[in-house]
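Our collaborator T.R. sent over the components below with a one-line note: 'Predict the complex.' Nothing else. No constraints on interfaces, no templates requested, no preferences about which chain binds where. So this is a plain run: every listed entity goes in together, and whatever single assembly comes back becomes the starting point for the next discussion.
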Amino acid sequence: MAGAPSLALRKPSVIPGFGLTLGFVLTYLGLVVLIPLAALVLKTAGLGWSGFLAIASDERTIAALWLSFSLSLVAAAINAVFGLVIAWVLVRYRFPGRRILDAMVDLPFALPTAVAGIALTALYAPNGWVGQYLEPLGIKVAYTPLGILVALVFIGIPFVVRTVQPVIEDLDSEVQEAAATLGATRLDTLARIVLPTLIPALLTGFALALARAVGEYGSVIFIAGNIPYVSEIAPLLIVVKLTEYNYAGATAIATLMLLISFALLLAINLLQAWSRRGFDRG
Amino acid sequence: MDALLDYDVNYFRRQETRVDETALSGSSGASLWGKPVDVRVDRVVREFGATPALRGVSIDIAAGELVALLGPSGSGKTTLLRILAGLDAPNAGRVTFAGEDALRLSVQQRHIGFVFQSYALFRSMKVFDNIAFGLTVRPLWRRPRKSEIRRRVMELLDLVQLSGLENRYPSQLSGGQRQRVALARALAIEPRMLLLDEPFGALDAKVRRELRRWLREIHDRTGHTTVFVTHDQEEAIELADRIAVLNNGQIEQVGTPAEIYDKPATPFVASFIGETSALPVGVRSGKLVLDGTPLDISVGGATGGTHNLVFRPHDVTLRPANGGGTVTGRVMSERRHGGSRRLDLEVGPARHRVEIDVPPETENAHRGDFVSFLPSRWWLFEA
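Returned assembly:
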């Protein structure tokens, strides 16, 4: 094998197992990810171009996709801001109950999403603990897009906290001290030194929260009310098509979601690569 | 180096006048900007929990002086530097800059250029923005115009010999280059004082020597009061006007490099600065006694008890073996040491180990031979 020019992919390295692990990765990804996705696209192809366009341009489809992606983006943005604050507090300050709070962050991961949905609905319903105080103010949460947003924020928060937390832990205090000796106020230091360092991790958390929110089903359907054109999310529309035995229609919407998600995640990745400039070496 | 020597000497003089024009911002430190200040540290105590890091340290530093804080790790030298910068606060004691209480001032108000051992450059910023940082964070009414900032950054890049690298990221620079960016960044704010924490600690020996000489030149040119921390005695001796030797949270001695080297005040200073050998001796009727044998060394004031006879390996004279009154030892090993040969001796029945330097061509001074000598310059410390 030594010196074989055919192995152009491989740089000389002392780390063993390149062939084995790469083979495993490709097989695994193929079986678990690529083949199901290919089947999805193949099924959609059976619909024909015009059939696909008909479903893609259907107003109900567009409304559901718009609702899913816009609310997911908003929820991920909210999570990015408050997840950052939570992570900051958990890392930077020592207070009683910190560890309990730290453990609680993971609860949305562990809770069955249906339970989360039912719990949130019970809270925000017009006669619920929180809903009864919002009702007189004219704010309706349950059975509206606002309710969906609440559910999506709930299930997305751990992603941001857990991706940003280790980076905050690794922040170099000398760099912040250097900024202070140069006359920077705390706010300057935060905005110009700390945040740029956190942005790559923050974007990762944002992307994960976004991806999770786009695919979320269980918690949303309980609180959404599922009114077509108003509070019907795309994953639910897929289930609706399935119950109508419209498999081609369901896969068409799924393929659309796949394409949009891929475009969004790719854009975030590019943004991340750009924000990481200067961090590559040393 | 030629480019550096040709550098416009009036640059910093011009800067000073410029500072005076822009500095009148109402902050309490403003009146002092631009000119190097003198520093007085008075009985400063700093404790971390129950562990004292500084136990009442006092030192006066004159304006424009280059002072080294020298000591082993854990001696409190970095703590003292951080207190001067305002990055740490003492539990007791006073610090004044030009007579003004410095402890009342925040880090930002102290207006001090601080160079960290790790350089602490801003990784997400290019070299240019790193150096410009101290100017661009100023409040709007004191911030120089963009063109002015650019001009100053370029001048500083020229001063630290990094012209043309302004668009690199710190990760694309070598250690020595990063160090110089850190220094340029600190100089950009026209500091009242320059503090450097182990500035050359992470660099290899050759770069280190170059930067050392270069820092001295920059200091002589800019005239900043400069304090740097080091554990490298050679660095302190070569670079500093005065050295403060710290040990265990206290200043053992302050003096010029020559004073510290030639007249160490304590055994610690003697052993920490330069190389020393020591022998336990007694005093009997005005003469030193080693293992019961009187030596040919007379002492005035010292009386009874055990003392340590401390001398440098090169401050010895060889004596004929049969003369008596000398220190005699058997050569255990020998090696080349600079321009001379260093012998590792085992002295007397108690087998004291000492090192002495002899001319390389000395005969009968090889492994197994007996060599007799007397220190030509020595100090006596109570054991």
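Summary for T.R.: Chain B has eleven helices and 20 strands.
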